[in-house]
Amino acid sequence: MKKYSWVFLCLFLYLVCIGAGVATRNSYTDIWAEVPAQPQDRIKYVFREDKDAYFTASPQSILDQAAVIVSATANSEGENKGKTFLTEMTVNKIYKNDGSFIGTTLVVCEPIRLNKITSQKDGKPLYTMEMLQGRGHRARTKITPGKNYILLLREFLPKGYRTEIPTYTMIESPYAKLSPDSITTAEQYAKPTWPIDYEQSKEYEILLQDKNQTNTFFDTKKKVLSLLQ
Fold first, then answer.
1. What is the distance between the alpha carbons of residues 68 and 100, in angstroms, rounded to a whole number?
2. Could you give phi then psi for residue 199, rounded to 5 degrees?
3. How confident is residue 195, by pLDDT bands cut at 50, 70 and 90?
4. Percent of the chain at pLDDT exceeding 70
5. Which residues share a beta bridge with 93?
6. Cα separation of 39 and 127, whole Å?
């Protein structure tokens, strides 16, 4: 009798493990659900500032968080997958590689959600674009085609899962996506409106209202980029 009890117990635990694995896998794959493209003139970029602590990390500790650091350019607009945008990018230079990145292209997952609402002005559908809480920094803007970025990345999928093109998401830091070619300084930074039109948001590498955070961001950005030289 005891022998059969052990068999049933082992079978039960096995099924629990399988169920947990499926649930974990689904928590990653539901982000790939297709959503039709929306007209960009109907999109508002809703942003909120992050806690000061996110901006005051030391430059070296910021770099240490990333498994892969690259300079890369998006060849086209990212594909909206419901809970994220997936953007295929060409890598121009590798600064850090934990061995997971191979080849010349990668896909960057940006956890940005599109919410459909009704415009009070004309009654037509309007969409708000915002970072998913806990999966990115809400002040960051979306990757746009043709721009060169320094990206601080970590693997997107669990260990053991691989995609044809290596897929990553940005680390939890406002410095995870930097525009090295931008000449904007804290003094020149024009405070954006809230919410901002999506087309206007493309002109910013980060969307901030607090002048202290703006000063800290540009000062730390300069130090992070100097460490990569």
1. 8
2. -60, -40
3. confident
4. 79
5. 71
6. 9
Which whole-number Å values give the CA distances from 10 to 2, 104, 128, 190, in the listed order?
12, 46, 49, 63
In eight-state DSSP terms, residue 206 is: B
Q: Provide the pLDDT confidence category of residue 193 given band limits of 50, 70 and 90.
A: confident
**Rounded Cα–Cα distance for residues 219 and 186 (Å):** 8
Q: Are 220 and 174 spatial neighbours (Cβ–Cβ below 8 Å)?
A: no
Rg (CA), the chain: 21
Q: What pTM does this model have?
A: 0.80
| Residue 114 C-alpha from the chain's centroid | 14
Q: Which two tokens stand for residue 208?
A: 């901030």
Query: What are the strands, taking DSSP E only, across the chain?
Result: 43-45, 68-74, 79-80, 85-97, 105-110, 112-118, 125-131, 148-155, 167-170, 177-178, 196-197
Beta-strand ranges (E) seen in 51-164 are: 68-74, 79-80, 85-97, 105-110, 112-118, 125-131, 148-155
Q: What is the distance between the alpha carbons of residues 132 and 134, in angstroms, rounded to a whole number?
A: 6
Nearest to 112 by CA among 35, 204, 189: 35
C-alpha–C-alpha distance, residues 66 and 179, integer Å: 17
39/124 Cα distance (integer angstroms): 12
